[in-house]
Write a structure and sequence with these properties.
With about 240 residues, this protein is an alpha/beta fold. The protein has a single domain (about 5-235), classed as Spore Coat Polysaccharide Biosynthesis Protein SpsA, Chain A, CATH 3.90.550. The protein has helices at about 15-30, 50-60, 75-85, 105-115, 135-155, 170-175, 185-195, 220-235; strands spanning about 5-10, 35-40, 65, 90-95, 120-125, 130, 165-170, 200-205, 210. It has a 7-stranded mixed beta sheet, with helices on both faces. The chain has a two-stranded parallel sheet with strand order 6-9. Helix 1 runs parallel beside helix 2 (about 50-60), helix 5 runs parallel beside helix 8 (about 220-235) and helix 7 runs parallel beside helix 8. The protein is globular, with a radius of gyration of 17 Å. The model has no long low-confidence stretch (mean pLDDT about 90).
Length: about 240
């Protein structure tokens, strides 16, 4: 099949950000090495994000919407988006946040890097990568989380907790999405770890991560604690 990508954007109460990120992605589509689409996966956002997504889909034939009946976790939103993509002829499946913390201008670089890799990570923690607008505590929690997972899993990846990724189709077909059990940000660790252990080549591309300026972060103690106990469980299961 000819190369074609789709970007999976999970949303929950992102009405103030969604149009901006979709239009920013649209501006980058002219620079990508091959054509692609956007899939908004909305969890019945009470702020009307789903309705706005439908309006954007009516405006742009490259925007699609998947409505879910309620808030069921980031991990499941991605899994449902991935399954939607695998039912169609996409060769590359990307994921990114809908709050503009991941730079849309890096999309072409991730797709270009996928020519020689199976999974490309937009990384904050390799040379050239950085974070803007985070306080010291948030920086510590994020960096410590990546180092913790890297050490326990013996994974040769610097940014295991990042959520800006480009998968070649075969990766998602092979890693058994039914077995991916993490629901929060541990989902990012688990999917990358499964790709590594399936023998896929994983590379990191530096990005500048910018903290959201509109809306509230979805990070919580529950999400952090899930990552703490799921990482050693992943290693034990291997």
């Amino acid at each position: 099949m000819p190369d074609r990508f789709v970007i999976v954007l999970p949303t929950y109460n992102e009405r103030d950000n969604l149009e901006r990120v979709v239009e920013a992605i649209g501006a980058e589509r002219a620079r990508t090495p091959f054509p692609g689409d956007v899939l908004v996966v909305d969890d019945a956002s009470p702020d009307g994000t789903g309705e706005l997504a439908d309006e954007l889909a009516a405006r742009h034939d490259w925007v699609h919407v998947l409505h879910r009946p309620g808030k069921r976790g980031l991990g499941l939103a991605y899994v449902h988006g991935f399954r939607w993509a695998l039912e169609r002829d996409y060769t590359h499946i990307l994921e990114m946040d809908a709050d503009l913390s991941h730079p849309p201008e890096a999309i072409p670089r991730l797709l270009e890097a996928a020519a020689d890799a199976d999974l490309v990570l937009g990384s904050r923690y390799v040379s050239g990568g950085r974070i803007e607008s985070w306080g010291a505590l948030r920086r510590f929690v994020s960096r410590a989380g990546s180092l913790y997972a890297q050490a326990l899993l013996a994974a040769p990846v610097h940014d295991l907790t990042g959520g800006f990724k480009c998968y070649r189709r075969v990766v998602l077909e092979r890693i058994d999405l039914d077995a991916v059990s993490a629901r929060g940000y541990a989902f990012q660790i688990e999917t990358t770890y499964r790709a590594l252990h399936a023998g896929f080549r994983v590379v990191e591309v530096p990005i500048t991560f910018v903290d959201r300026t509109v809306g509230a972060s979805k990070m919580s103690k529950t999400i952090v604690l899930e990552a703490v106990w799921r990482v050693p469980l992943l290693r034990l299961r291997r």
